[in-house]
Amino acid sequence: MKRLHLSIVFLLLIFPVLYAENNNLVRLTLKDAVTLAQLQSVDAAVALNELKTAYWEYRTHQADQLPEINFTGTLPSYNNNYGKYQQSDGSYTYVQNNWLGMNGKISIDQNIALTGGSISLNTSLEFNRQLGKGAYNEYMSIPLGITLIQPIFGVNNQKWKRRIEPVRYKEAKAAYIESVEDVTLATISYFFNLLQAKENLSISVQNMENANKLYDIAIAKRKIGHISENERMQLELSALQAKGVVTEAQSNLNARMFQLRSFLGLSEQDIIEPVVPELVPSFRMNYNEVLEKAHENNSFAQNIMRRQLEADYAVASAKGNQRSINLYASVGYTGKDINAEKAYEQLKGNQIVEVGVSIPVLDWGKRKGKVKVAESNREVILSRTKQEQMNFNQDIFLLVENFNNQAGQLEIAGQADKIAEKRYHTSIETFMIGKINILDLNDAQHSKDEAKLKHIQELYKYWSYFYNIRSVTLYDFIADKNLDADLEAIIRK
């Protein structure tokens, strides 16, 4: 049985080496894993596409503030039909209308952000040919025309968009960096899961080796009567259970490795060897400083501002819709002739001025009700954002407290790990000379295993708190700088 035990241990120890010969062994630090995830993970790609959507929406808003040059035309229009025609005596008859026409117009259009109106500078030429008997051509030109459309007393949509859209884009940029940091947090979780699984396998293999050695010793002691048959059988059972634990630990390691490998976009032939991360330089974080960075950089602050602006915009729109007065004015020159060149001579003035009014006389309070609804919604949003702000500040306070306390917890866990390891080895030696029983030995082994895994868990918490704070502040406290990037360059890649 001893030979069988040694064979199993040998295979378990050389299995990763034999497996790695046909695969790629990848030693991966926590920093390397984070970098790979930000470059290759599906979550990072989704965050980038969301940023691209926000970027082009903002570019569209910016383009709305710039003048546009537009061409509209009909090339050509043909009409051959009968239409009703009223004669001089009041009777109607049907006449044939047979003509061919073409027209084209070029305009320069500009929105006026200050007033919410629009102004256009345009020129156009229209050609009409009457077909059939007595066919002839005619041209009409508008060499220069200016058109103004201006709402009066209504809401200035352009002004509100100029206030809201930049905030929305800042929110999207901050949200993208936060999404990248969320990828980092997920990477840390997967990385430490693999690290803990690897450590668990190492502990299981070590425990199996020790259980096998103790069982071999127990057989010898039983022959000379130093231990009872019950103790020998208990050690045999422990050796068998240890082999089952090793098999289970190996399966868990394979599963954890597959998760991290899939998340990082690595090949199935890559064997990840996680490296235990070192601590960042020891320092304590100040709550007020962390809170200030969070308010400066986090998308939450922009989200609050945007929602309040949108609520104000909804109220202004509801009030503006209570009455509607629109001014339309067009000034220019027009010429016509049977020749295209002469259509630009002997020009005559062409002016149109219209003022449209829409004022409800009796609407049973419908428009007033819409204003009240918009104002109530605004109050709800203000109350919600105030509560969300308090929760946000509280979450940051807890994160800072947990991080500042975690360094001490990690130090305690490290010392406990060393003491438990030393106690276990001492217990084995003491058991071999018959000074303690199997229960005390099992207790020492259990304490050693728990202390080892506890140390890994506390190390995970330390890095998790650190990167959570980095995620909400978008600030690297080690490098002492904001987590920013050339987002437009990233978008254009």
What does this protein structure show overall?
This protein is of the alpha+beta class and 493 residues long. 61% of the residues lie in helices and 22% in strands. The chain is built from 10 helices and 10 strands. The chain has helices at residues 2-21, 30-40, 42-64, 157-223, 229-264, 287-297, 299-320, 366-432, 438-473, 487-492, and strands at 24-28, 68-86, 92-112, 117-130, 136-152, 270-274, 324-337, 348-358, 475-476, 481-482. Strands 2-3-4-5-7-8 form a 6-stranded antiparallel beta sheet, with no helix packed on it. The chain has a two-stranded parallel sheet with strand order 1-6. A hairpin with a 5-residue loop joins strand 2 (68-86) and strand 3. Helix 8 (366-432) packs antiparallel against helix 9 (438-473). The longest helix has 67 residues, at 157-223. 21% of the residues are buried. The model is unreliable at 1-22 (pLDDT under 50).
How is the topology of this model organized?
Elements: H1 2-21, E1 24-28, H2 30-40, H3 42-64, E2 68-86, E3 92-112, E4 117-130, E5 136-152, H4 157-223, H5 229-264, E6 270-274, H6 287-297, H7 299-320, E7 324-337, E8 348-358, H8 366-432, H9 438-473, E9 475-476, E10 481-482, H10 487-492
Parallel strand pairs: 1-6
Antiparallel strand pairs: 2-3, 3-4, 4-5, 5-7, 7-8, 9-10
Helix pairs in contact: 1-4, 2-3, 2-4, 3-4, 4-5, 4-7, 4-9, 7-8, 8-9
